[in-house]
């Protein structure tokens, strides 16, 4: 239960089947927990809509330094990737971002490439 761990520095919901719907609860938790440093959401069938929600939450969760999003479905629609990259452009604390195995298409690849070049 997320409410019981408000002071935790890490959140792991790997393979918890939260999907896009669960991203709202995660985003709320991210905004309320200023101690949160590491988030592992691998293998949760998260798509572009969920990634947009998480990206907006990352704006206020500026202590997060590691985000694992591998084995989701965030690479096929550029809206989610653009939202994430827009936040990361001004984020000074993120040191680890894992997007492996998301079937990143050409448009999302271009967006990620622009982030890396900046």
UniProtKB/TrEMBL annotation:
Residues in the signal sequence: none
Listed InterPro entries: Leu-rich_rpt, LRR-containing, LRR_dom_sf
Stretches of the chain forming a coiled coil according to its record: none
Superkingdom of origin organism: Eukaryota
Protein name per its UniProtKB record: Uncharacterized protein
Species this chain originates from: Strombidinopsis acuminata
């Amino acid at each position: 239960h997320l409410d019981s761990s408000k002071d935790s520095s890490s959140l792991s919901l790997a393979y918890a089947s939260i999907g896009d719907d669960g991203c709202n609860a995660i985003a709320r938790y991210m905004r309320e927990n200023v101690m949160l440093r590491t988030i592992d959401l691998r293998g949760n069938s998260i798509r572009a809509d969920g990634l947009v929600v998480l990206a907006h939450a990352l704006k206020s969760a500026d202590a997060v330094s590691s985000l694992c999003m591998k084995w989701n479905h965030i690479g096929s629609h550029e809206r989610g990737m653009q939202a994430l990259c827009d936040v990361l452009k001004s984020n000074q604390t993120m040191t680890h971002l894992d997007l492996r195995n998301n079937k990143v298409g050409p448009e999302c690849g271009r967006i990620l490439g622009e982030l890396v070049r900046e």
